[in-house]
Amino acid sequence: MLKHDLTPVLHRCEQLAVLNRAAARYAKRKPVAFHLKIDSGMNRLGISPESVDCFAGQLAKCKHLKLGGVFTHFASSGVFLDTVAGRQTPEQEERFYAALERLKKLGIDPGIVHLANSAAIASRPETWADMVRPGAVLYGYHPGYDPTELREESERKLPLKPVMSLRSRIISLRDVPAEQGVGYDSTFITSRPSKIAVLAAGYGDGIHRSLGNKGKVLVRGTLAPIVGIVSMDVTMVDVTTSLMSRWAT
Predict the structure, then answer these.
(1) Residue-wise pLDDT tens digits, 60-116
(2) CA distance 61 to 27
(3) Is 81 helix (H, G, I), strand (E, B) or coil?
(4) Cα(46)–Cα(62) distance, rounded to whole angstroms?
């Protein structure tokens, strides 16, 4: 069923005709409001700035549609270095606002204007416009920033706490001699006599396999490295240094 807050994916302005027919069928009482995405440089979704005139012409023919907002999406809003990526955000802003002005000159009210994603919310207040679109920050995580000092500054200005955590229990503690493999394919070899904790959670529970030999978990408040390939139901963690003194052998 077509909802009044529908935001269609518009690759070409001609797609408005398809949306208008759907609106005429499912929302007969009043026009359906939608938001138009302008592709300002990410080359993922939205119409190009060059298609604005075509869009305006098509919208005039669509009696069952109403433009409720116009937006774009930043590709590199967390990058501030003098690089191609670092210069991309102001270039996207320029293209977007040029397209917006063109819409206004064609007699179209753009409605709600929005640009800022999570990184821009935290670090680029000049992009906030009429509203913002938080993503990762809703879950308590800052996106990546470059340079790293920008992350520290953003975290001070916008302190966040993760809204979710994955907790498990240690179901086994194993004393493993040096030069022994741990887990599938022995991708981790102990360099010393080690104490390996086995967690009752694996990739079937949401611990991604890519974290094998890379990720870390908190065990009694101390970080411990994941070792070996993450299994479906269990994950191995090296607690030799951080927790050995706390556990009975």
Answers:
(1) 999 999 999 999 999 998 888 777 788 899 999 999 999 999 999 999 999 999 999
(2) 17
(3) coil
(4) 19
H/E stretch holding 65: strand 65-71
Half-sphere exposure at residue 156, Cβ-oriented, CA atoms within 13 angstroms: 4
Say yes or no to pLDDT of 48 above 60: yes
The two beta strands, 194-199 and 181-182, are unpaired
Helix axes 84-105, 52-59, angle to 10 degrees: 40
d(CA 38, CA 169): 48
Q: Phi then psi for 202, rounded to 5 degrees?
A: -140, -155
Distance CA 244, CA 193 (A): 11
pLDDT in tens, 149-175: 788 888 888 899 999 889 999 999 999
**Percent of the chain surpassing pLDDT 70:** 92
Q: For residue range 123-142, list pLDDT tens digits in order.
A: 899 999 999 999 999 999 98
The DSSP string of 174-218 is EEE-TT-EESGGG-EE-SSSEEEEEES--GGGT--GGGTTT-EEE
Amino acid, res. 96: F
